[in-house]
Amino acid sequence: MSQIQSEIVAGVGLITLDRPEALNALSLQMVIDLTAVFTDFRDDASVDVVAIRGSNKRGVFGAFCAGGDIRFFHDAAIAEDPALEAFFTAEYSLNNLLYSYPKPYVAFMDGVIMGGGMGLAQGADLRIVSERTKMAMPETNIGLFPDVGGGFFLSRCPGHLGEYLALTGQMLVGGDALAADLADGLVASDSMPDLWDSLTANTELSAIERFEQLSDLVSLPSPVTAPAWQDPQIDSIFALPTVMDMINALEQADGEWASKTLACLRQRSPLMLHVSLEQIRRGRQLTMADDLRMERNIVHHCFHTEHLGRSGTSSETVEGIRALAVDKDHAPIWKPARIEDITRDMVEPFFSSPWSEEQHPLKDLD
């Protein structure tokens, strides 16, 4: 049974993620099916607008997408299953398709939206959140990095908020996403179904006119309270050149925000903090396609870290997923264990391509 539902109504291509028992976490087959649907809608002259939503166990909305299926990542890495490499190639290709999508595209980001869900939504022309939206790129907590184009869209957040979000994995709740420029409109969750239906309801208007009406409605200025985590020190501390500079500054800073942020960073993978910072800094200068090619290199090295003598069960990512989602002991054994022990020689190889330019799996992205 397909976990992607799609239909065309009144010139609008409608997509529903339908794997509610897993918070719509993306499998390889879901990525393949999504790519096919988005491509078909792109090429279908009867489709003028595309919209996507998630489902939960009680029906539609309430959950968008919790990201990639990390238990699959764990098991596939241990089994040396080639489907793992195929997943990232397919997912990043889909991310690029959505960022360059030629038709108006709306993402209804109700409920949980993390990792791969952000990759589906951040390329949308209209990104709608509700008060129950819980948005994050928490990958450093599982020994990974904020991929699916995170180097591109996080680096374009205001100031140095992108570095902060990438390294800490801070959750954005509701209107927090507006403050980070990661959403365009905040609406009440109980209005989501009516807004979805408005895209297809008034057929006296064209699909494009209905999209424009929806955009005008949800993009009205909303009173957004600055979130408690958005401390004035973010820009100065997370603009510093290295992770260790940030740690030193946080140790010297006063206040609860600094102490909480320091404690958070101390729990994350030291290695992937350094890799993620480098990713965001490089991504700020890249196109989305080039950023995704860079991230494809990085994610290969996450599971094949030969320069550290690690792969499979001993990789940082497999260990992080084990601790969070498999054994659930929440006690990952990071290697190296301390932020202070990371060197440039450990970080730089993540950015070297294991493929020649002609053989790169994303060579055709533009």
Descriptive report:
- By secondary structure, this protein is of the alpha/beta class.
- The protein has one domain: 2-enoyl-CoA Hydratase, Chain A, domain 1 (Alpha-Beta Complex).
- It has 16 helices and 12 strands.
- Strands 1, 2, 3, 4, 5, 7 and 10 form a 7-stranded mixed beta sheet that branches.
- A hairpin with a 2-residue loop joins strand 1 (4-9) and strand 2.
- Helix 2 (70-79) crosses helix 15, helix 3 (83-99) packs antiparallel against helix 14 (288-303) and helix 13 runs antiparallel to helix 14.
- The radius of gyration is 20 Å and the shape is globular.
- It starts with a strand and ends in a 19-residue tail after the last helix.
CATH architecture: Alpha-Beta Complex
Largest sheet, described in full? Answer: 7 strands, mixed
Instruction: Give the number of helices.
Output: 16
Give Rg in angstroms: 20 Å
- The CATH topology annotation reads as 2-enoyl-CoA Hydratase, Chain A, domain 1
Outline type: globular
As a percent range, the share of strand residues is 5-15%
Helices and strands, in N-to-C order?
EEHEEHHEEHEEHHEHEHHHHHHHEEHH
Number of strands: 12
Structural class, from helix and strand content? alpha/beta
Chart the SSEs and their pairings.
Elements: E1 4-9, E2 12-17, H1 28-43, E3 49-56, E4 59-60, H2 70-79, H3 83-99, E5 105-109, E6 112-114, H4 116-121, E7 126-130, E8 134-136, H5 150-153, H6 161-168, E9 172-173, H7 176-179, E10 185-187, H8 192-201, H9 207-218, H10 233-237, H11 243-252, H12 256-267, H13 270-283, H14 288-303, E11 304-305, E12 310-311, H15 316-326, H16 344-347
Parallel strand pairs: 2-3, 3-5, 5-7, 6-8, 7-10
Antiparallel strand pairs: 1-2, 3-4, 8-9, 11-12
